Amino acid sequence: MAEQRADLDEILKDAHLPSLMAALVHMTGDPGFIRPEWAPTYNPMEREDIGLSSETQAEMRSEAKAAIQAFLDGRPLQLREPDGATLRRMIDFVAGAPIPEGYADFLTDELALAGKSTKDPQFEQPRLKEAARKLKVLVIGAGMSGILTGIRLSQAGVPFEIVDKNPDVGGTWFENTYPGCRVDNSNHMYSYSFEPNHFWPQHFSTQPVLLSYFRGIAEKYGLRQHIRFETFVEQLTWDEAKAVWRVEMRGKDGQREVVEANAVVTAVGQLNRPRFPDIEGMGSFEGPAFHSAEWRHDVDLKGKRVAVIGTGASAYQFVPEIAPEVASLKVFQRTPPWGLPAPHYHENVPEGMKWLLEHVPYYDKWYRFWLFWMVTDGFLPMVKADPTWNGGPAAVGPENAMLREMCVQSIMAQVADRPDLLPKVVPDYPIGGKRAVLDNGVWLAALKRPNVDLITDRIVRITPKGVVTADGAEHEVDVIIYGTGFQASNFLSFLKVKGRGGRDLHESWGGDARAYLGITNPGFPNLFMIYGPNTNIVVNGSIVFFSECAVRYIVGCLKLLAETGARALEPKREVHDAFNARVDEANKGWAWGSPHVSSWYKNAFGRVSQNWPFGLIDYWRATLAPNPDDYVLEKAPEAVA
Ligand code: NAP
């Protein structure tokens, strides 16, 4: 027992104390663990800083130790579900400030203390179960969203099939295997809310770890038997008479097959079709040239002269990895990325933290909640555009300017010994204009290496030997790596979709994809998109959250069909248009909507086609369940007669 006490001292050094205090309220039934003098004051730039003196923290650890020891010695868990007022105090305590009134039900649902959430399918009634069994849903994609859809459809009792072009599950985590690839959202949040992993090895795990998580989930829920791998869905055609989608697909042997489905869910991500730049002479290069998302592991970079084009989130991860092994590295930058200080970006999750996640009931939920609040709507004010702002185009408002100042200070400290780099690495656009990356120092350290050059002259041509820039220099290299991103705004470009009356989805979009809530489209009944237009996030949170909300809504649409006996639904045109008008207007109010920013968040028309311009709470609310008034429901002919 003495040994166990000694362990607890070590373990508690790794605790996130505010989350632990909330967990101890459950363990002991004593709300005294969330006393005002222990309330944290967070520092947004320093995650370890909870604004409490070391004496206070020692006191908290000491009381925590006694409570946990008693629990380990057999004292039963006292409180599973606190009453509303106590829960509210716990939420405010862990958030570090009173959260706005309207957030309580949303955050309580995210916490899912009783293990139940609005995201669980509700098909209990026998009549609904029976109707669900008669449906067939086809899901395109077996990545994070497709796996999730499969899980929820199984829980709802809806028959389904998943089709994926790849030979395995995992989507983006299967395809992107470049060195250094890792998630840039904390893993304890970038995971399904109902499938926590207490043993993430790092706060931001690497691609193989993520892939293994999604493989494990697919196994656990028995999804593989529902998945057709190496099969490419080419066309969807709506059969008006039968009210089904005819789905044409091609298998790996070229074999074509047509199947019918009452509904189709596209779960294909936004970032899965590599984009190569349009640079003269690209095909003439004599050496290997490849995109970061199609990494050539057969090309040994050791001792080679390498060019990297692009400095977005992908290059930001692989440049520091390859820089030490190549002979020389020329990084061609058009626009520098913003890095948000995150010293723990590559750090392991401490063993004590893993222990607490596994052994202290509810600690995992409160820790996830804290991450969720800190990086979600809590961060949004920093990137909000102030219409009265007159401080220049490098910021969009006073809070944005303040954040900019803090980040510039961090950059300056890192390149103090290389003043020549400073003007090249400080962005001139507002933070939040593009996807910011997490800065633990490795990016600028790589750029400072003697074998690395950061080239900001415009690329004019690629030759058989290398890259020519506007200053006339020809940079001779052996290998070119394109870190130039994805065709993000070409939603569903791989897929021909013929909807009601033979209407073509891409013609109706005219290159400017839109959807109602990013999910449904007028004229395309029972076709549901996950991670569709205007459902991406820039700074606030994890895309898993968006997928969970979208899937809840899609399952809700299937339930609406089952409840009403309708066989198809599609959004009313006016509802779709009014929603999109609101989205476009709201997107102007954020850094990413600034006219001074160009990014993959905007499409060829300059419209922000990717991003959700409201809070997470708004997507959560909007997707709780479909409002029948928003939809045209098509009854079966016999039901009409
Ligand atoms: P990206 O952010 O679109 O970056 C593409 C880079 O290529 C940009 O620096 C861009 O410059 C540059 N570029 C494009 N065309 C060029 C040209 N003709 N000449 C010179 N430079 C050119 O692509 P990405 O890095 O693959 O990231 C895409 C998104 O994927 C990210 O925003 C993020 O959402 C996601 N991602 C996430 C992770 C993660 O979670 N860990 C990792 C990687 C990617 P400009 O900025 O001037 O356009």
UniProtKB/TrEMBL annotation:
InterPro entries: FAD-bind_Monooxygenase_sf, FAD/NAD-bd_sf, Flavin_mOase-like. GO terms for molecular function: flavin adenine dinucleotide binding; N,N-dimethylaniline monooxygenase activity; NADP binding. It comes from the Bacteria. This is 4-hydroxyacetophenone monooxygenase. It comes from Phenylobacterium zucineum (strain HLK1). The keyword Metal-binding does not apply. PANTHER family: FAD_NAD(P)-BINDING DOMAIN-CONTAINING PROTEIN-RELATED, L-ORNITHINE N(5)-MONOOXYGENASE-RELATED. Coiled coil: none annotated. Keywords: FAD, Flavoprotein, Monooxygenase, Oxidoreductase.
